[in-house]
Design goal:
The chain is α+β, with helices and mostly antiparallel strands. It has a 3-stranded antiparallel β-sheet with strand order 2-3-4, covered by helices on one side. The protein is built from 4 helices and 5 strands, in the order αββββαααβ. It has a single domain, classed as Outer Surface Protein A, domain 3 (Alpha-Beta Complex). Helices cover 36% and strands 20% of the residues.
Length: 106
């Protein structure tokens, strides 16, 4: 069963602010981050999980330090990677995955 909020989010224009835009994500505690040539390998003791982040995901993970909002992280990444088309900026997908995997908290 769908709720009304799902439709509102799906119908919103791509540049419409979302509820998460003002949140300031930060890296979860208890992570063991290992820097590799091609990204990060992160060990998460809770659940004994290992995560592999490519260079772009590792960059976004570093920006999740609690000082920037999701919107600011997306804007910073677009500038640094010279992404002119906001639709081509995958930062929202990356931060969403980092949150779902428990690597980043709000």
């Amino acid at each position: 069963m769908e709720n009304e909020g799902d439709h509102a989010a799906a119908d919103a224009p791509p540049d419409a602010p979302s509820a998460r835009d003002g949140l300031r994500p930060r890296q979860a505690e208890g992570l063991q981050v290992n820097v590799m040539d091609d990204g990060y390998v992160i060990y998460q003791a809770a659940g004994e999980r290992v995560h592999f982040l490519n260079v772009t995901a590792a960059y976004v993970f570093e920006l999740c330090d609690g000082t920037r909002t999701f919107r600011e992280i997306e804007e910073q990444t677009a500038r640094d990677f010279r992404v002119a088309d906001p639709a081509a900026n995958l930062t929202g997908e990356i931060t969403g995955r980092l949150v779902r995997e428990g690597l980043v908290e709000c």
